[in-house]
Fold this protein.
Amino acid sequence: MQDNQNYSILIVDDMPKNIQLVAKFLTQEGYNLFFAQSGDSAIKQIGSRAFDLVLLDVMMPGMDGFSVCEHIKANPATASIPVIFLTAKTDDVAIERGFAVGGVDYLTKPFNPVELVARVKTHIILRQREKELREINNTKDTLLSVISHDLKTPFFNIMGLGEILLSEYDSYDDAMKKELIRNMVDSSRISHNLLENLLSWTRVQTGKIRYSPEEVELSTIINDILALVNQQARNKDVSCSFLAESNLHVFADTHMLQTTIRNLVSNAIKYTPKGGSVYLSVLRKADKAIIEVKDTGIGIPTNRLEKMFMPSNLSTTPGTENEPGTGFGLILTKEFVIKNKGEITVESEEGKGATFRFTVPLHK
């Protein structure tokens, strides 16, 4: 019953007694129920709320149930919602038309309560499986996109630089050799970080990553991360500073927290020009800590701000030194923040840098 509260069902019938009867049995199952007494009212509700199932009477004044179903199926945003017809019409023509306009099932009045509950449960389960399959396909498409394009780029750089170094080794001086090696190391680090994010995100999507919160001292983790990205910052002459209350302990999954902060700091460095700055700060507010990563970089266009954390809007945006970027780290970052009972926001003005803030519960 508890799980069923996540599913919303719209019951459409012009007779209040019929709505009450259907609701009586489905309420016992714990579904989240909504009601409409006309076709127009049903369409308005379907347009403003996400439903998992519609139970639809056929014979209603004005717009009948068949017309309502046709309207639902004609809209790409609502076409996937399953519709079960509940009606006293039992002739073959009516039943055939119900399926023709997109209905998935047909129950005749007076209906058997056990049959009603069973069929609703079946189509709710099918609806959930359809969503899961769609998410799996989206995950697969995202993986193929990143692997086929963004993950290959740094490997091509490494191979190309390695071939140059091998063929011209004797003619290059030490300074040139060090520069080539440094570029190879940078490309290796980029590909490693991307691959690590990719694998972590895949485990999140498939439910194979464990959330294991524990007491964590923030300053220690952040100082370790700053040491890790030190070379990346030095290569771009970007200064990183950190200000935080000492001995601030949070309750979080250590790996997820490290990955979140590392992605935000690495991104800030990537999109900050030479000579710029990245600032990290942590403050206590009520029962949570707010971690802020601020930079003096190129900023984020307004039309991208709302889509920063959406898997369907991955885009390749190179850094200020043409470092490859996919936005993939930010998607994983949001997943990890949510897993740790926090929230993440971003503020930016193009040409004036960006500020990312996320929260994490304090250790009690």
